[in-house]
From TrEMBL, chain B:
The lineage of its organism: Bacteria, Bacillati, Bacillota, Bacilli, Bacillales. Gene3D superfamilies: Cytochrome-c3 Hydrogenase, chain B (1.10.645.10). Its EC number is 7.1.1.-. Belongs to the complex I 49 kDa subunit family. PANTHER family: NADH DEHYDROGENASE [UBIQUINONE] IRON-SULFUR PROTEIN 2, MITOCHONDRIAL (PTHR11993:SF10), NADH-UBIQUINONE OXIDOREDUCTASE 49 KDA SUBUNIT (PTHR11993). It is an enzyme of class 7 (translocase). This is NADH-quinone oxidoreductase subunit D. NDH-1 is composed of 14 different subunits. Subunits NuoB, C, D, E, F, and G constitute the peripheral sector of the complex. Residues 120-291, 292-365 form the NADH-quinone oxidoreductase subunit D domain. Keywords: Cell membrane, Membrane, NAD, Quinone, Translocase, Transport. One of its GO terms (molecular function) is quinone binding. InterPro entries: NADH_Q_OxRdtase_suD (IPR001135), NDH1_su_D/H (IPR022885), NiFe-Hase_large (IPR029014). It catalyses: a quinone + NADH + 5 H(+)(in) = a quinol + NAD(+) + 4 H(+)(out).
Length: 229, 366
């Protein structure tokens, strides 16, 4: 190949390269159009965001302005608290409220010493008749332990959640098994997995874990005795 | 010299009539049971502890494995609890699909019970009939979500898969088929004299005892208490459909048997209406945030599973994982009455009574 030929080839390559590059450099009119489009899109986005923020703010303001409809369960809650406090004694109900996340289910925190008396009242009182215990849950809140009894009145079609609180070091609450037989195995399960002892329980043994198990697995700080296994 | 002594007999955990790994230690005086102590935990997998380190979508497959005979209702109780907390809207088509699979599941679950219960008390062929018909439902589920038992079908905000073309027609065809088969079941078993002699008046209790022990499902309704969460605390779309809640009067195994068979009929009735009203198009997933974080607080939701009230108690701290997740398992609660029922009964009735309660050990032990 002569030098001249080489030069020609090089020139060809260059033009080819140039040709290849050319489409990448968009011609000015298209560029302007694109920019205008981008700008319009950005403006539209900003407008939408502003409108959304405004609508949200208005909704929040409207929520604040209109007084909240009192829940139909509010009366029930007040009645339960009054009945318990009048019969068992002032200070029995430590906290009370409606659970908004749960169709406004009334929730009462009961002083655990009064629990046996309160449980009988809830079951037998003519206005309450919470004869059906649907569920018992135990929760470790790290600073204290909580037991929740979910009760149901089949006659009145009403439900209520009763909470007992106990400290983590020597957790103990009175058992509800004498009042509702349902509580028996549920409390055994809580004893097994959270280590809460229920005084007055007829048969408090482990139920899920083996009898020689060490520790209570549902505690937040639980560490298996032998983590390798 | 004649001497008598009591005999300690261990039944299970590996025994076909205990439907899984359930063990019961009985004290016998001759043929009569004087004490019965259930021993549980052989299938305890710590689902509730495991759930604390999983996000909500990851927990759904674990619920399949609790009550593995009725996985669809277990799926539903979890996603329903999360939706209740977050106030999520579920598209109508998705909710219809959920309801249809739940009712199909109820039929399938009762068929398993019917077949295995009769097998327990000595009738071989009903088992084959029941599993033949259940197979149709299992195939329908397989077509819908690719699994026969552990479906993992529902999601927070909807369902994972839409019904494939032609699926709803198959469900439609199944309803009259099953209605006809139920008549066959009745002819085959319900009036059989040997069968009646085995279960009439066995394992009897009254309504007050049932309520005191927190029984639910057919175990409660057989005593005459008309309580069904689908009717009394309606969830999903149940308030749209007409159906009856069957009850018994004597609270014995025979009434439980009749209640469950009637429940299959009522489920078919619901299915018939649901298939007719099924929306022809629409979304199967609602608008759900990418990461599902229920607000701080707690909720307890309950639905009617084939075995009774299954509940889900979620305590949330606003994270993607639950702070505490507790399941109210109907089998676990229903089983509590067993020791009480067994005292004074003969050994042969142990199987009759245990089978009549209808437990799934995956759910008892959780």
């Amino acid at each position: 190949m002569s030098d001249e030929e080489k030069e020609n080839l090089k020139a060809n390559e260059l033009t080819e390269q140039q040709e290849a590059m050319e489409p990448k450099q968009a011609p000015p009119p298209i560029d302007a159009e694109r920019e205008a489009k981008l700008k319009a899109a950005a403006e539209a986005r900003a407008a939408r965001a502003a409108a959304k923020a405004k609508a949200e703010a208005e909704a929040a303001q409207a929520e604040l302005d209109t007084p909240k409809e009192p829940s139909p369960r509010q009366n029930d809650l007040e009645r339960y608290v009054r009945l318990i406090e009048d019969t068992v004694g002032q200070g029995t109900v430590k906290e009370s409220g409606l659970n908004e996340l749960n169709a406004d289910m009334p929730m009462l925190v009961i002083a655990s010493e009064q629990w046996p008396e309160v449980s009988l009242l809830l079951r037998d009182h003519g206005e309450l008749r919470f004869s059906y215990l649907r569920n018992v849950s135990g929760i470790d809140y790290e600073t204290y332990l909580e037991i929740v009894y979910f009760l149901l009145s089949l006659d009145n079609k009403q439900d209520v959640a009763i909470k007992l609180r106990t400290d983590r070091e020597a957790p103990s609450v009175p058992s509800a098994t004498p009042t509702w037989s349902t509580a028996n195995w549920n409390e055994r399960e809580i004893y097994d997995l959270l280590g809460i002892s229920f005084t007055g329980h007829p048969d408090l043994r482990r139920i899920m874990m083996p009898d020689d198990w060490v520790g209570h697995p549902l505690r937040k700080d639980y560490e298996p005795l032998d983590s390798e296994v | 010299m004649i001497r008598t002594e009591e005999l300690l007999l261990n039944v299970g955990p590996q025994h076909p009539s205990t439907h899984g790994v359930f063990r019961i230690v009985v004290k016998l005086d001759g043929e009569v049971i004087t004490e019965a102590t259930p021993v549980m935990g052989y299938l305890h997998r710590g689902t509730e502890k495991l759930a604390e380190s999983l996000n909500f979508t990851q927990i759904i497959p674990y619920t399949d494995r609790m009550d593995y005979v009725s996985a669809m209702t277990n799926n539903y109780v979890l996603v329903h609890a999360v939706e209740t907390m977050m106030g999520l809207e579920v598209p109508l088509r998705a909710e219809f699909l959920r309801l249809i699979v739940m009712e199909l599941q109820r039929v399938a679950s009762h068929l398993v019970w019917w077949g295995t219960y009769l097998l327990d008390i000595g009738a071989m062929s009903p088992f084959l009939y029941a599993f033949r018909d259940r197979e149709i439902i299992i195939n329908l589920f397989n077509e819908l979500c690719g699994a026969r038992l552990t479906y993992n079908y529902m999601r927070v905000g909807g369902v994972k898969w839409d019904a494939p073309p032609g699926w709803m027609d198959k469900v439609k065809d199944f309803i009259p088929y099953m209605e006809k088969k139920l008549e066959e079941y009745d002819k085959l078993v319900s009036g059989n004299e040997i069968f009646l002699a085995r279960i009439k008046g066995v394992g009897q209790y009254d309504a007050a005892t049932a309520i005191d022990h927190g029984l639910s499902g057919a175990n409660l309704r057989c005593t005459g208490v008309r309580w069904d969460l689908r009717r009394d605390e309606p969830y999903s779309l149940y308030s749209r459909f007409e159906f009856d809640v069957p009850i018994g009067h004597n609270g014995d195994c025979y009434d439980r048997y009749l209640v469950r068979l009637e429940e299959i009929r009522q489920s078919l009735r619901i299915l018939k209406q649901a298939v007719e009203q099924f929306p022809s198009d629409g979304e199967t997933m609602g608008k759900v945030p990418r990461v599902i974080r229920p607000p701080v607080g707690e909720t307890y939701v309950r639905i009617e599973s084939p075995r009774g009230e299954i509940g889900c108690h979620i305590v949330s701290k606003g994270k993607a994982e639950p702070y505490r997740l507790k399941f109210r398992r109907p089998s676990f609660v229903n089983l509590q009455i067993l020791p009480k029922l067994l005292v004074g009964e003969t050994m042969t009735n142990l199987i009759t009574i245990l089978g009549g309660i209808d437990i799934v050990v995956g759910e008892v032990d959780c």
